[in-house]
Specification:
Layout: E1 9-15, H1 21-30, E2 39-45, E3 49-51, E4 59-61, E5 73-76, H2 89-100, E6 104-107, H3 111-116, E7 125-126, H4 133-139, E8 144-145, E9 151-153, E10 157-160, H5 165-178, H6 180-190, H7 217-225, H8 233-240, H9 244-255, H10 259-277, H11 282-288, H12 294-305, H13 309-316
Parallel strand pairs: 1-2, 1-5, 5-6, 6-10, 7-8
Antiparallel strand pairs: 3-4, 9-10
Helix pairs in contact: 1-5, 5-6, 7-8, 8-9, 10-12, 10-13, 11-12
Length: 318
């Protein structure tokens, strides 16, 4: 790898049109050169000069894409309207050339769209801000989009969720490069949580999918009030006054998931609420949301949220 003076690891942060200030600021600040940090950072754009930012800020960058030429890592922060704007062809070409030279590429939030435009995420796992995971999957069908994680490390290409998970991604890279001691040191400097693993869940407001239409809204309302009871496809179909087969088919068309998947996610959401707002034990909560046992609740929590009920409660209880 090419290193700067004193063997420092060189980081370039790419500011695209509409760049999000937090996404740009996190790697720029984390990797700034200081005695304890064997890194140096440069902020660049598609061309030197002014760049229109997002959220009321604009930027002035000294360097264009030539900053990639001796970079060891390039960060691609998120930007506005990623689902409807193509990154400039020159940016895509420069990212591909850097990757071919052995530079690792790390996207923060919607920066994943610019990284995906290179084709380097095809066939690999990736994530982005939960609000955009469907758009990313639709736009780049070969990418295995995981909407539930904080970040994904595929070795030389990394992606992360919304803004604050950029901190998790940076700490992960420091830890990967130099071990836990330095990453803890950086976390303390940032007054951040020491280390959240990439597999930990993005905290999406709810795991129950939004219905696309209003079909069976009354049945869903009824189900939410009866989660503690044994709910079957037949029970739900009876409430909706249609046959189980019709209910199932139309339910999938309206929500994108099966009735029983929906019930499971609704139960997990209710469990989240009880963990946040009450002191009930895991067994009691499992019983109250219709998941039977604590083991069952833990299993589904791990699968849907990537964390345990206890960890969830520690993070979110008021």
């Amino acid at each position: 790898m090419k290193h700067g003076h004193h063997g420092n690891h060189r980081v370039a942060v790419l500011v695209l049109d509409g760049a999000k200030p937090l996404d740009v600021g996190i790697p720029a600040q984390v990797f700034t050169r200081r005695p304890s940090m064997p890194y140096e950072v440069r902020v660049c754009g598609a061309a030197p000069g002014p760049v229109t930012g997002g959220d009321g800020l604009s930027y002035h960058v000294a360097q264009g894409l030539e900053a990639f030429e001796d970079a060891d890592t390039v960060f691609i922060p998120g930007y506005r309207e990623p689902a409807t704007t193509e990154p400039p062809a020159a940016v895509v070409a420069a990212l591909l050339a850097a990757h071919a030279r052995g530079t690792r590429l790390a996207a923060i939030s919607t920066g994943a769209f610019a990284l995906a435009a290179t084709g380097l995420l095809d066939g690999k796992r990736a994530t982005t801000h939960w609000h955009y995971t469907r758009a990313l999957a639709a736009r780049h069908p070969l990418v295995r989009v995981d909407e539930n994680v904080l970040f994904v490390d595929e070795g030389d290409v990394l992606t992360s969720a919304g803004a604050a998970s950029g901190i998790d991604l940076c700490l992960h890279l420091v830890r990967r490069d130099h071990g836990v001691g330095l990453s803890h040191h950086v976390a303390r400097r940032l007054v951040a949580a020491p280390y959240r693993s990439g597999g930990q869940a993005q905290y999406v407001p709810r795991s129950v999918p939004e219905p696309l239409g209003d079909l069976f809204a009354d049945t869903r309302e009824w189900a939410l009030a009866h989660l503690a009871e044994p709910l079957t496809l037949e029970t739900l179909a009876r409430t909706a006054r249609v046959s189980p087969r019709t209910f199932s088919r139309r339910f999938v068309e309206d929500t994108g998931c099966t009735p029983m998947q929906w019930v499971l996610r609704a139960r997990v959401d209710l469990a989240r609420e009880l963990l946040e707002r009450t002191d009930l034990g895991v067994e009691q909560i499992a019983d109250r949301v219709g998941l039977g046992s604590g083991a069952n609740l833990r299993l589904h929590f791990q699968r849907i949220l990537g964390t345990s009920p206890t960890e969830y409660r520690q993070t979110f209880s008021a």
